[in-house]
Known about the structure:
By secondary structure, this protein is an alpha+beta fold. It contains three helices and eight strands, in the order ββαββββαββα. The model has no long low-confidence stretch (mean pLDDT 86).
Amino acid sequence: MLVGAYETEPRQDGSLVLPARFLEESGEPYVYARFPQEEGPVLCLAFTREALPVDEEPADETQTLALPLREGAVTLPHEALEALGGETAALIGVLKWMELWRKDDWDRETDRAGEELALLDGLDGFDGIL
C-alpha cells in the first residue's frame, strides 16, 4: 500500500527517485503515469495501469504513459517537469497510486483541508471521525 507524503526534487537528468517504501510495491519494470483531469496534482503514478485513478471519462491507452523504472528512479515527462517549474515536489501515496504535486500547492491543499476539518470539529455531534 502506497501511503505517506515525501518531499523530493527531480534530479538534473529529469528523473525522480521514488521512496524505498514505495518501491516495495513495484512488480514491473515500469511506472505508469497519467496527467490528472483535476487541478492540484501534476502527475498520477502507479505500478500497474489498473491502479491509476479513473476519471469520469475513461482514459484510453494513449493517455497512459509507461515510464521505465531504473535503479529506483523514473524519468518524468517534459510536461511534468515544466509544471513543477524547478520547485520542490511532494510525492503523496494514495493507497494504490501516487500523486506528484508542487510542494507549495500541496501545502496549500493540506492547510485548506485542515481549516475545513476545524470547522467540522465545532459542529455538535461531530466526533472527528469521517
